[in-house]
Specification:
The chain has 386 residues and is an alpha/beta fold. It is built from 13 helices and 20 strands.
Length: 386
């Protein structure tokens, strides 16, 4: 089998009417990089990556792909044409070499763009591997189970949103069957956030898990103070509590100062970043995002390191891909999902066939590869092809 074509498609949705805020950042729009890897045996692999804007409009009104999308076409595709797509380890190393070999900075892409483009390609290669073996990826990777517990991410800050609105939102998640909810904090004072989380705890009761996500919004002292005030509310984990510049040593100080388990890893780009979080950061939950960086081939190495450190996986974003990893391995703990089309139209619109989430459980499909089918209407309406 040989690769004959690598096709990037950037799929973007219109800006949100009311932006969603984390502690520091506004989420005003979403997009996804879809990569189709075609082969001479008629098997096509579907890969995905996400991140910032990956297309632009020129002065004639024509849309063009950019960033990680153009990296796929201009840089990675020439390395991959004619290669055997089943050789994922060798192809991963070949692509990763671009980030450090002589002259890498002249190739026209940043390291992060290369790693994001690699993620989409590598994910597509695993889809091909599953289809060639006629088995779903979750079974190919280990087959520990075919279901994964899920939580819902919500509780964003929005203009005009009150605590009553927040509690109504969280009660609606419980009514749809979720038993675990993650809330955003760090965007207002610690005391205001404690009031917000307390209101949610009172609204949903003691049997619903609550996680809180600071999105790197605190310094170390503030993170420790917030953690101690939140401890009585039975918080399942405290996520990314400290600013980006102190996400290892500062994180460890917070971990040592609270009984709440610390979660982190979505900003990690490679196994080496993940290694530092595991050995020096004091985390108990690893949230590496292989659709943001480096792909399935890399996350499997990270999962092995986590197992040796008694750390479980709660991988970040894109449940249609990460669900397979979580189902495959015994240290897959819980999966992040965004069931609201208002926040995540990707889940709602990109696929014509995908897994379903019922009562806080995703059941993986027993179809070859990822088991996904792309919605061609969405690709036509929202997509920009490279």
């Amino acid at each position: 089998m040989k690769i004959t074509d690598v096709e990037p498609i950037v799929v973007s949705w219109p800006p949100f009417e009311n932006s969603f805020w984390t502690s520091l950042n506004r989420i005003g729009q979403v997009s996804e990089l879809v990569v189709l890897v075609h082969t001479d045996e008629g098997i096509t692999g579907i890969g995905e990556a996400h991140g910032g804007s990956m297309h632009y409009i020129d002065n004639t009104g024509v849309a063009h792909i950019s960033g990680a999308g153009s990296t796929v076409t201009d840089i990675l595709e020439p390395l991959l044409i004619g290669e055997n797509p089943l050789d994922n380890e060798r192809l991963w190393s070949k692509m990763f070499g671009l980030t450090y070999q002589k002259g890498w900075s002249q190739i026209g892409a940043t390291r992060q763009q290369i790693l994001a483009a690699m993620a989409a390609v590598d994910i597509a290669l695993w889809d091909i591997k599953g289809k060639a073996a006629n088995m779903p990826v979750w079974r190919l990777l280990g087959g520990y189970r075919n279901t994964v517990p899920c939580y819902v991410t919500g509780g964003y800050y929005q203009d005009g949103k009150t605590i009553d609105d927040l509690t109504a939102e969280c009660k609606s998640y419980v009514e749809t069957g979720y038993n675990a909810i993650k809330l955003k904090i760090g965007g207002v004072t610690v005391e205001e956030d404690v009031d917000r989380v307390t209101a949610v705890r009172e609204a949903v009761g003691p049997d619903i898990d609550i996680m809180v996500d600071v999105n790197e919004g605190y310094d170390v002292r503030t993170a420790i103070r917030a953690a101690r005030l939140l401890e009585p509310l039975d918080i399942r984990w405290l996520e990314e509590p400290v600013h980006w510049y102190d996400r290892i040593e500062g994180l460890r100080q917070v971990a040592d100062a609270t009984t709440i388990p610390i979660a982190s890893g979505e900003q990690a780009l490679t196994r080496w970043d993940a290694r530092d979080l595991l050995t020096r950061g004091g985390i108990k939950i690893m949230q590496f995002d292989c659709t943001r960086s480096a792909g399935i081939t890399e996350v499997l190495k990270i999962a092995g390191m986590c197992a040796a450190q008694n750390v479980n996986l709660a991988l970040h974003h894109d449940p249609q891909v990460h669900g397979h990893v979580m189902a495959a391995l015994p240290n897959g703990e819980i999966l992040e999902t965004f069931p609201s089309a208002a926040r995540d139209p990707i889940w709602a619109e990109l696929f014509s066939v995908r897994p379903e989430i019922v009562n806080s459980q995703m059941t993986l499909l027993d179809r070859p590869g990822w088991g996904l089918e792309l919605n061609e209407d969405t690709l036509e309406k929202r997509g920009v092809r490279g």
